UniProtKB/TrEMBL annotation:
GO terms for biological process: RNA modification. The gene is PCMP-E90. InterPro entries: PPR_At4g14850-like_plant, PPR_rpt, TPR-like_helical_dom_sf. Gene3D superfamilies: Tetratricopeptide repeat domain (1.25.40.10). PPR repeats lie at residues 25-59, 127-161. Keywords: Repeat. GO terms for molecular function: RNA binding. It comes from Acorus calamus (Sweet flag). This is Pentatricopeptide repeat-containing protein.
Amino acid sequence: MVSCYARSGMMGRARSVFDSIPDKDVVSWNSIVSGYTENGLWREPLDLFVLMQQSETTRPDRATLAIILKLCADSEDRRFGRKVHGLAVRTGLASDVMTGSTVLDMYAKCESFGESLRAFREMPERNLVSWSAAIAGCVRNDRVTDGLHLFVEMRREGVGASQSAYASLFRLCAGISSLDVGRQIRGDAVKTGFASDPVVSTSVLDMYAKCDRLRDAERVFRLLPRRIADVECDCRCVHSGRFGF
């Protein structure tokens, strides 16, 4: 019922139901916390998280930490995020790959790149999600060299590749107008089969356009699925006035 009311935006009723539960388990706590977050309310989840830690019967789990860390990232509340990270370390949840990925993403979005990279390096286990989050953090903080080095390291370790990692790197190349690097990354995307992915292709198009390679951008554009191409064309025409494909 808590989740049902929350999805309907009726947080007053959701809170009343939650408060009436005599023995609240972690699912109940997570439902009310995520309900507030999904309805754009940030202060209440943090207050509830503090109360949850004071509970004698229930402790936050990795889902709780993921919700709160994402909230800290979205609100750029690094101070509270550090406290949550500290709790994760004390409870052993920091070694969980899901929690670790959320921690490094939180620091990156709070413009604390050093802490983000340190959290990534301290993870005992890293998967494709954590690698992609670390690379995205580099792009967000304009750490060009770090982002490229991480990508090379990821590929050397045989982790694989992801849509988000490629898209992040093409945005990075677009931002610094690095055509040579962008072409190398596109060559890698071709080898891994991601070159035809709509999100990756759109990022490639953007990279070529910002590097003043309009013919290359047009070739990529022509290969986009029709629906995506129409949207892309409209956006380009409006924002740059330079595309008239």
